[in-house]
Design goal:
Layout (H helix, E strand, L loop, with lengths): L1 H23 L15 H35 L2 H10 L22
């Protein structure tokens, strides 16, 4: 008797669920979606490549600064002043972007 009560409650659920899947299969794909996750190795290789690139850029930047300081030491006073006018080590920050104009609403 107990099994008949459970069967009366569970069987209609599964029949309704199967009918719903059957009807839905006409409109959408019922199969599980194919999700491709990025491989961890590719991300690791990209991070490694970026770190090497940053290290190379820092090394190049340091070498250029050394060359610049050597060139300044080898110049005489007048040419050094002209050189400083044209080539500054520190570049000023760009100006901030302009603010967006305010929208004025006119009530009718």
């Amino acid at each position: 008797m107990l099994y008949i009560g459970v069967l009366k409650r569970v069987l209609p659920f599964f029949v309704t669920f199967a009918a719903g899947l059957f009807i839905a299969s006409f409109f959408v794909s019922v199969s599980s979606p194919s999700v491709s996750f990025p491989r961890r190795g590719h991300k690791f290789q990209e991070i490694k490549r970026l770190r090497e690139e940053v290290r190379d850029l820092k090394r190049t930047n340091c070498e250029l600064r050394k060359q610049l300081s050597e060139a300044r030491r080898n110049m005489d006073e007048t040419s050094a002043e002209k050189f400083d006018l044209y080539f500054n080590e520190e570049v000023p920050a760009p100006p901030p972007p302009p603010r967006a104009p305010r929208r004025v609403t006119v009530e009718k």
